[in-house]
């Protein structure tokens, strides 16, 4: 298996423990060049909630934002093979509280925290954005109980937002050209039609309020694993409550789940521009030269 090689970065704090429930509750904090405090992006990996790691090779493009002056906190969390929902969001929220409590020690600016996830990680990022300080979705006994677990900005790459409508949307778009997956039953600990209440509680769209942070959703129309209508559904609700264009939905025609156009340098620069606008950073985008991210075998 290949993963992002942390040795290519000048300043790294690997496997920082943030939780007390599992050895999976660790994060890698990677700092950019320049002087602290650094704007921080919490990165949440995908993998259907049952696989993947914080340094998974196919998400290496996200680490290119370090060259643009952003710190990354790449979060590991309990997979569904270890614990079912809501353990995953408990972990993400604990990681956010940890960063608010301890981020200054690592040179991070914690006045604003952005979160960025892909696929299942985007689902968790959406949930963190939609349901800050929500008792039913947090376990403050895991630590830093006095801190807030809210996020201030979201980037969501092709993530599910409503676990109860995704299958029907896939059928609507693709008919029989659908992908059978056990990811949601594994997350919920049982079949979807037997766990509808739990599925509703695990759906970010159901927690959207007028306080939802600024957000960018990107999704491909040929995604048969998570239909783009999932991102459309949640952005429409956000904008209905928060005002037009509060959440931006950018559709990639013909792009599959995790497809190359979304991960291309052109789009990484697009995401940097979105981050910069949020963090009030100005730069010459024509001068951005993104590096290649080195991988290693493990």
């Amino acid at each position: 298996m290949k993963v992002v090689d942390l040795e290519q970065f000048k300043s790294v704090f690997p496997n920082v423990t943030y939780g007390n429930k599992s050895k999976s509750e660790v994060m890698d904090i990677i700092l950019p060049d320049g002087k602290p405090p650094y704007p921080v992006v919490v990165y949440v990996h995908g993998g259907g909630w049952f696989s993947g790691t914080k340094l998974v090779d196919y998400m290496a493009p996200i680490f290119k934002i370090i060259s643009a002056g952003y710190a990354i906190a790449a979060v590991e969390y309990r997979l569904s093979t270890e614990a079912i929902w809501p353990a995953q969001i408990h972990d993400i929220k604990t990681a956010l509280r940890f960063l608010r409590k301890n981020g200054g020690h690592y040179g991070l600016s914690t006045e604003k925290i952005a979160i960025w996830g892909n696929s299942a990680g985007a689902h968790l990022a959406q949930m963190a954005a939609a349901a800050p300080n929500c008792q039913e979705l947090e376990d403050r006994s895991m630590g830093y109980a006095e801190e807030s677990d809210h996020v201030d900005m979201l980037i969501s790459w092709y993530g599910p937002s409503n676990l109860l409508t995704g299958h029907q949307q896939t059928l609507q778009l693709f008919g029989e050209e659908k992908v059978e997956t056990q990811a949601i039953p594994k997350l919920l600990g049982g079949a979807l039609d037997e766990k509808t209440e739990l599925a509703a509680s695990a759906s970010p769209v159901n927690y959207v309020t007028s306080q939802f942070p600024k957000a960018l959703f990107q999704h491909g129309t040929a995604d048969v694993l998570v239909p783009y209508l999932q991102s459309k559904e949640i952005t429409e609700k956000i904008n209905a409550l928060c005002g037009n264009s509060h959440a931006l939905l950018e559709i990639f025609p013909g792009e599959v789940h995790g497809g190359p156009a979304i991960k291309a340098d052109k789009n990484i620069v697009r995401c940097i521009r979105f981050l910069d606008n949020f963090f009030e950073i100005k730069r010459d985008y024509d001068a951005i030269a993104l590096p290649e991210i080195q991988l290693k075998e493990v």
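The two ends are 6 Å apart (CA to CA). The helical segments are 87-102, 120-130, 166-174, 183-188, 196-201, 229-242, 260-263, 265-279.
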